[in-house]
């Protein structure tokens, strides 16, 4: 999964911290590897790359009952509160599959 998220002005550091901490929530279906990258041109713009064990774990992670009902846990709500006003909650969200890697 690739996500592009725009923080409220000046809140980029807080967004990166919240996203980093959220990756340690103990979800067995969460990403097994992830990268958070900052735009060189905009310190409030984050690109997140998440890699899952398999398609089934990805599906379970993104189909939790709370997410389907639009209810966010504390960690996801913290991130949603940092997202720029008027921006889609997660900006760009695109499912991708790795073809090759080092």
Structural notes for this entry:
Helix 1 packs antiparallel against helix 4 (74-82). By secondary structure, this protein is α+β, with helices and mostly antiparallel strands. The protein contains four helices and four strands. The longest helix has 11 residues, at 12-22.
| Largest sheet entry | 4 strands, antiparallel
Q: List SSEs in N-to-C order.
A: EHEEHHHE
Radius of gyration: 14 Å
Q: Tell me the β content.
A: 15-25%
Helix content: 25-40%
Average pLDDT for all residues: 83
Structural class: alpha+beta
Total beta-strand segments: 4
The first-to-last residue Cα distance is 18 Å
Order of adjacent strands in the largest pleated sheet: 2-3-1-4
List the total number of helices: 4
Q: Layout of SSEs?
A:
Layout: E1 2-6, H1 12-22, E2 33-38, E3 45-51, H2 55-62, H3 65-68, H4 74-82, E4 92-94
Antiparallel strand pairs: 1-3, 1-4, 2-3
Short description:
The protein is an alpha+beta fold.
Could you name the key traits of this structure?
single chain; 102 residues; alpha+beta; four-stranded antiparallel sheet; 4 helices
């Amino acid at each position: 999964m690739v996500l592009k998220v725009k923080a409220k002005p000046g809140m980029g550091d807080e967004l990166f911290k919240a996203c980093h901490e959220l990756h340690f929530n103990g979800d067995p279906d969460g990403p097994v590897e992830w990268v958070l990258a900052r735009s060189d041109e905009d310190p409030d713009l984050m690109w997140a790359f998440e890699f899952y064990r398999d398609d089934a774990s990805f599906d379970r992670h993104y189909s939790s009952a709370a997410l389907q009902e639009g209810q966010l846990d504390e960690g996801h709500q913290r991130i949603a509160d940092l997202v720029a006003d008027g921006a889609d909650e997660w900006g760009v969200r695109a499912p991708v599959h790795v073809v090759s890697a080092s």
